[in-house]
């Protein structure tokens, strides 16, 4: 035979016309009978199961010269001979042995000796090329195959390279040479799985590069990494894929695959139809039988690869890192399973089992713990029934695992801070995090969030009266925010499926089947929700709404189809006596309105108690909303009805919006009134649309025909005023905040403030109400509403003491604009945004153009003055300037009677001004100036008035009256009063005011009672503050500016007209009092309790929070009380059961005569954490308390005598297995509480500090457990390590999420990478640790296990070298499975290391 040198001839197998020799099937059997028994994997290994996911088909195919454009030529690299003579002699030796039919073993030994003498590295890449080229096809005889097999046995050729070369030769020619195909598969079964010996071979890298060249792997898959381990994955994947396509081709099934062709060569390019015996019928029949047997064997090998422990894990790496290629493979595998006739003849393989392999959802990289501690930990991770029962037996019901949601919802209800971000997005991320960490089904997760929201309602079902209403906000949280969060999660799945469908249209039928998975979980959840009747009890104020929902379901079931508007007129009297509903009916209606459910929910068993009864009284009156949609005009009666009844659909609220835009002036006012009515407060199904419409109406575009010199906004004065007044209530602003619309609302208010604040108050407008309206009034309403959208009311003390942020870092109008710009600029960039946009009305569009503070020069100037007022004393008032004249005019207006006396009130810099002679008329003329000018002068006016009072020229009563007159003239000046008086209190330069009842109001009547009640509240919560003074004979005093502000608030009546003023001043007053020395806050509570006795409980509760502002020890005690009550470790019977009820209780209020119910510690902490000055110390304290809780749990879960027994047993951990499981469930709850408190207290910044700084220093310094814990046989230390791991991962998921959906997730890679680098360095011995070794090991294995099991996307963000170092350290602990799981999730960069680990450990 002439030697072939060009690659094309090598590929096609040209042999210069020499006849090809067929090997009968018996030759195959005889050949392998000469060898020792074929080695097989154990049956248990062969049964290893493989998880396969479905991905789209591959798309980069080559070789345009083949019959199918998608067939890739497998070019064989020519032999690179170190010496031509050497390889000629090798070939001659082989031919000679072949002719003599020599013993293959002698041939192999002789050849090995020759190659060693020639210093050729073995196994030899060149020899592999030579032998395969020799066999295919000029010497396709049994003896040459025996030579090849013996060369593999004695390891003079690399098996993987030989198989790669054979795959390019044999598989395409299998129909011509079926025996060669059979022999190839026998070699494949025998030698493919011996990866370990090949991996550690001397020429492994060279061999893999050669395989890459032969199979063109790098070109085929296009991966950025080309290292031996990666090539190994690609090789295994390619071999099994080629067998699959060959099997499909054998049964003519390739046409059924999406690509209708093969990716790998399955047929020869030059089919030899003139070969020997081509038309020999006997030989053809024999070949046909062999071909069918080969197809069956190929399928068996495919299954073996998918089930084998080593290859299945290697294929798992291909699945994770080459999803598009894997998708094509799976699609072809499914075609084989569905249509293969050969497959149905196999005994041990069924189509169903093969399809199961292609869709198996089990974890491939399962991590069976090496120790009892690992087993116990993963038992807890599984969230199984054992853990649930254990928790229930220790006072922590299954609902307690959703405790973070309860805490978040309750914290979001605190109206003292308006959030700039959406509670919907935060709740969505929180629920996804808990579902992932708890490992629950989505129906359990949905049930958890609904139950938490229902508990929030029940805590406010019968609230005690106070100035801050909460029930409507709580109902918004239940029926709007929670529903939208659930909608996000359901639609997120649909967005991902939509993305996959767009990428691969052939998956449409399958995706439709999977589309409703989370929706079905939601249906299951809502059906189970009906079992929680106690939580579903309806607050009295919404009973009529619930009755309407029940009536709607009843009418639908009975076949009476009427419009939604009909149910508006249904009341209790129209309902059947036995047909009252509950809050589940409102939840279901909310889900139907969001297209999460359909009306089939009305037919759920038990949803309505009677479907045969109809309404006893059917009103003939057409409801208002129905009349409106039919075209009825907005008459006064109809407007009143629409104001008091919420819209039931988006179409109805859109109709009102259209009227507000294009109606008459009177209709526009009516439409604005309707929008701010019940549809805004209780239109839960369309609440976000109503808010967006209001914001849109506050930003009308410039008319195309407008030509006036003034702003076009001036003509909207009356219309704006209705909207501004309508959205100014406390609960309404909180609703905007929960919906995340504060930045948009602020951006709409700023132009109104700028324009109306720059206008002179003449002429005035007379709206339809008949009241005169000035630009000052419109400005004040807009300005005071704008101020409430950031932390304006917090005192400057917060920004001037300690290591706290500077003034410039506080949230302000500029920050709100940044949020607004970022949100609008990024919206629409993701599939999820596109789905969200479908919910928004077609009328709602916002420009994405950025808005900056420079667009509002007057507002910016005022804000700078506000900042300056906080930082320094007043200066710069020059006599004779316009500002000085306005100051004089304001003082004259405020103190008219005083100015007629001999002691006029004048500004300090003006000397003896003639303003005292000015009359009221003259001052009013001077005040016909823009509101911005008055605000600029107001600080000087307040300074002059306070100075006059301090020097006795002005009595306290006169000061309060004058301040009230100024606020009545321009309510916007209240903001300046708050900032000025707060700043002056912090300076401490004013003499104290004696609250004696003569000059200033006296709190003496009830001050001691208030102080005693505060003491009782703290004591009942587990907080003891010995330094808290109660009673005493010293007269009550307050800083003069504070006394002035209190006196001003007392002058207001508790009516609707004063609500907006008190809403602005009240929170500021509380914040200021909290920063003043004790007993300023009790004095404030006493004075206001005298004015509003019905608010007494609320005021006392607010006053009790002040203690924590001044005393860090009290904060620590409160934190301890939170933990002991939640875990049921408290001796108090109130908290002995533990769980959510013990932590959050039922709010506050007097339910017993003569006393106050103990306030739940969680409620108290959520109200005070914002006033804790040094928030950084919180993490260390929480971590310390967490460790104490672990010790207490361990001692209560495992009695001391049992611990002693554990020390004496070889398998001590197993001795207390059940108790240990219960203990781990409780420490898990403790970690969940701790993580939530850290996240709520300081947000992502505090979590970042914890992960990056606090925990590393904590482990290095050796904090943690005391000696008693270390003596417990390592059990307490182990529990502590797992607890801290769970605590740390939970903190991260709360702050950054489990995916990349939130903006905060962008910070995660840097922080997480630094922490894992610390772990890796410590494992590598580069960092010395001071903590207990058992705790450290438990922490590392726990942290990594949670990441691998619950936050897999985190691993992709970590540097590959860090993962490799961490994996190496885990292997030293015999945690090979965990090390493999970590590398397996590390992406393409870690795939090679993961593959090498799989082979090395032979998993």
UniProtKB/TrEMBL annotation:
Compositional bias segments (type: Low complexity): 908-921
Residues covered by region (Disordered): 259-287, 902-921
InterPro entries for the chain: MED33A/B (IPR039638)
Any one biological process term the GO annotation gives: regulation of phenylpropanoid metabolic process
One annotated Gene Ontology cellular component of this protein: mediator complex
Keyword vocabulary terms for this entry: Membrane, Transmembrane, Transmembrane helix
Parts of the chain that traverse the membrane: 1215-1240, 1275-1298
Protein name: Mediator of RNA polymerase II transcription subunit 33A
């Amino acid at each position: 035979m002439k030697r072939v040198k060009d690659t094309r001839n090598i590929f096609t197998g040209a042999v210069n016309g020499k006849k090809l020799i067929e090997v009968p099937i018996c030759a195959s059997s005889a050949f392998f009978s000469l060898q020792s028994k074929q080695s097989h994997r154990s049956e248990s290994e062969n049964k290893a199961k493989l998880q396969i996911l479905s991905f789209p088909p591959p798309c980069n195919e080559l070789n345009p010269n083949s019959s199918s454009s998608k067939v890739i030529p497998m070019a064989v690299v020519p032999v690179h001979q170190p010496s031509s003579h050497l390889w000629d002699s090798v070939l001659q030796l082989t031919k000679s042995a072949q002719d003599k039919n020599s013993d293959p073993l002698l041939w192999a030994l002789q050849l090995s000796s020759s190659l060693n003498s020639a210093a050729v590295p073995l196994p030899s890449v060149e020899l592999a090329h030579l032998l395969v080229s020799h066999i295919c096809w000029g010497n396709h005889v049994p003896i040459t195959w025996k030579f090849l097999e013996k060369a593999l046995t004695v390891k003079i050729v690399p098996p993987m390279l030989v198989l790669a070369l054979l795959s390019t030769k044999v598989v395409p020619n299998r129909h011509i040479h079926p025996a060669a195909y059979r022999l190839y598969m026998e070699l494949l079964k025998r030698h493919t799985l011996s990866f370990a010996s090949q991996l550690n071979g001397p020429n492994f890298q060279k061999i893999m590069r050669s395989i890459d060249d032969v199979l063109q792997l790098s070109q085929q898959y296009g991966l950025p990494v080309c290292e031996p381990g990666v090539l190994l994955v690609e090789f295994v994947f390619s071999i099994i894929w080629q067998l699959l396509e060959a099997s499909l081709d054998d049964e003519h099934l390739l046409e059924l695959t999406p690509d209708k062709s093969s990716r790998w060569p399955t047929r020869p390019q030059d089919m030899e139809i003139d070969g020997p015996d081509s038309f020999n019928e006997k030989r053809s029949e024999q070949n046909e039988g062999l071909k069918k047997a080969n197809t069956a064997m190929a399928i068996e090998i495919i299954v073996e690869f998918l089930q084998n422990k080593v290859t299945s894990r290697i294929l798992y790496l291909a699945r994770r890192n080459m999803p598009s290629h894997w998708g094509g493979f799976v699609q072809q595998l499914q075609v084989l399973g569905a249509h293969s006739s050969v497959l149905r003849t196999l005994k041990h393989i069924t189509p169903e089992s093969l399809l199961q392999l292609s869709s198996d959802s089990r974890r491939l990289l399962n991590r069976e713990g090496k120790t009892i501690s690992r087993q116990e930990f993963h038992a807890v991770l599984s969230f199984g029934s054992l853990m649930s029962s254990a928790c229930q037996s220790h006072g922590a019901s299954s609902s307690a695992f959703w405790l973070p949601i309860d805490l978040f919802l309750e914290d979001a209800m605190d109206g003292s801070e308006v959030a700039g971000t959406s509670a919907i997005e935060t709740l969505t991320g929180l629920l996804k995090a808990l579902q992932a960490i708890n490992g629950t089904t989505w129906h359990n997760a949905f049930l958890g969030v609904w139950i938490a929201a229902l508990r929030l309602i029940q805590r406010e079902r019968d609230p005690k009266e106070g100035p801050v209403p909460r029930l409507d906000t709580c109902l918004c949280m239940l029926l709007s925010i929670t529903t939208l969060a659930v909608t996000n999660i359901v639609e997120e799945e649909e967005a991902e499926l939509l993305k996959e469908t767009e990428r691969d249209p052939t998956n449409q039928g399958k995706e439709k089947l999977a589309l409703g998975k989370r929706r079905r979980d939601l249906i299951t959840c809502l059906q189970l929700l009906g079992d929680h009747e106690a939580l579903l009890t309806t607050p009295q104020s919404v009973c009529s709404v619930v009755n309407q929902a029940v009536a709607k379901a009843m009418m639908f079931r009975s076949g009476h189809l009427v419009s939604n508007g009909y149910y508006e007129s249904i009341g209790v009297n129209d309902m059947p006596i036995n047909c009252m509903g509950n809050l589940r009916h409102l939840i279901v209606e909310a889900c139907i309105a969001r297209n999460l459910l359909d009306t089939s929910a009305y037919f759920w068993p038990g949803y309505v108690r009677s479907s045969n009864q109809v309404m006893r009284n059917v009103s003939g009156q057409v409801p208002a909303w129905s009349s409106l949609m039919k075209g009825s005009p907005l008459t006064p009666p109809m407007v009143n009805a629409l104001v008091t009844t919420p819209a039931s659909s988006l179409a109805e609220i859109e109709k009102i919006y259209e009227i507000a835009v294009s109606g008459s002036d009177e209709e526009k006012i009516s439409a604005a009134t309707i929008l701010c009515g019940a549809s805004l407060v209780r239109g839960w199904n369309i609440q976000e649309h109503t808010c967006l419409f209001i914001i849109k109406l506050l930003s009308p575009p410039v008319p195309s025909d407008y030509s006036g010199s003034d702003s076009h906004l001036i003509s909207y004065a009356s219309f704006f005023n209705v909207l501004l007044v309508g959205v100014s209530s406390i609960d309404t602003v909180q609703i905007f905040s929960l919906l995340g619309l504060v930045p948009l609302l602020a951006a709409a208010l700023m132009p109104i403030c700028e324009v109306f604040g720059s206008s002179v108050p003449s002429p005035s407008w007379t709206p339809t109400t008949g009241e005169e309206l000035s630009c000052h009034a419109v400005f004040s309403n807009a300005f005071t509403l704008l101020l409430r959208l950031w932390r304006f009311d917090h005192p400057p003390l917060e920004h001037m003491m300690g290591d706290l942020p500077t003034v410039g870092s506080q949230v302000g109008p500029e920050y709100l604009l940044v949020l607004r710009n970022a949100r609008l600029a990024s919206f629409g960039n993701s599939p999820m945004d596109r789905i969200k946009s479908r919910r928004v009305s077609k009328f709602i569009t916002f420009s994405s153009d950025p808005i900056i503070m420079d667009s509002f020069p007057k507002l910016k100037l005022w804000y700078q003055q506000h900042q300056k007022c906080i930082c320094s004393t007043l200066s710069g008032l020059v006599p004779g300037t316009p500002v000085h004249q306005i100051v004089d005019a304001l003082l004259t207006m405020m103190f008219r009677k005083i100015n007629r006396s001999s002691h006029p009130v004048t500004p300090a810099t003006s000397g003896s001004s003639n303003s005292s002679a000015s009359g009221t008329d003259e001052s009013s003329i001077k005040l016909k100036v823009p509101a911005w000018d008055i605000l600029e002068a107001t600080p000087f006016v307040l300074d002059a008035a306070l100075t006059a009072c301090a020097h006795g020229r002005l009595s306290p009563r006169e000061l309060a009256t004058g301040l009230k007159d100024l606020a009545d003239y321009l309510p916007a000046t209240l903001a300046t009063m708050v900032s000025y008086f707060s700043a002056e209190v912090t300076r401490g330069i004013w003499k104290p005011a004696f609250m004696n009842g003569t000059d200033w109001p006296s709190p003496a009547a009830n001050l001691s009672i208030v102080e005693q009640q505060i003491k009782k509240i703290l004591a009942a919560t587990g907080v003891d503050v010995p330094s808290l003074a109660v009673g005493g004979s010293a007269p009550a005093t307050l800083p003069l500016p504070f006394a002035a502000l209190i006196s001003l608030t007392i002058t207001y009546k508790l009516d609707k007209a004063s609500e907006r003023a008190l809403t602005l001043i009240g929170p500021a007053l509380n914040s200021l009092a909290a920063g003043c020395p004790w007993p300023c806050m009790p004095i404030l509570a006493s004075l206001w309790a005298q004015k509003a006795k019905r608010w007494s409980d609320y005021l006392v509760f607010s006053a009790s929070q002040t203690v924590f502002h001044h005393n860090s020890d009290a904060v620590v005690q409160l934190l301890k009380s939170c933990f002991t009550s939640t875990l049921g470790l408290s001796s108090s019977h109130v908290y002995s059961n533990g769980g959510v009820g013990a932590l959050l209780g039922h709010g506050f209020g007097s339910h017993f005569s003569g006393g106050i119910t103990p306030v739940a510690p969680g409620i108290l902490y959520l109200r005070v954490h914002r006033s804790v000055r040094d928030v950084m110390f919180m993490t260390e304290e929480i971590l310390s308390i967490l460790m104490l809780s672990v010790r207490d749990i361990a001692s209560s879960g495992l009695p001391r005598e049992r611990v002693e027994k554990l020390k004496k047993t070889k398998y001590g951990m197993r001795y207390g297995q059940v108790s240990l499981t219960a203990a781990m469930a409780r420490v898990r709850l403790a970690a969940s509480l701790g993580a939530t408190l850290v996240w709520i207290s300081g947000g992502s910044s505090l979590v970042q500090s914890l992960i990056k700084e606090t925990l590393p220093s904590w482990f290095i310094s050796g904090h943690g457990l005391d000696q008693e814990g270390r003596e417990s046989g390592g059990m307490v230390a182990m529990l502590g390590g797992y607890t801290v791991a769970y605590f740390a991962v939970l903190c991260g998921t709360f702050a950054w999420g489990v995916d990349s959906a939130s903006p905060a997730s962008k910070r995660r890679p840097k922080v997480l990478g630094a922490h894992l680098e610390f772990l890796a360095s410590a494992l590598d011995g580069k960092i010395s640790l001071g903590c207990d070794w058992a705790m450290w090991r438990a922490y590392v294995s726990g942290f990594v296990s949670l990441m691998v099991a619950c936050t897999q996307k985190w691993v992709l963000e970590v540097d590959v070298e860090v993962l490799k170092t961490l994996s190496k350290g885990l292997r030293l602990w015999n945690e090979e499975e965990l090390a493999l799981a970590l590398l397996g999730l590390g992406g393409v960069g870690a795939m090679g290391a993961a593959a090498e680990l799989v082979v090395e450990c032979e998993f």
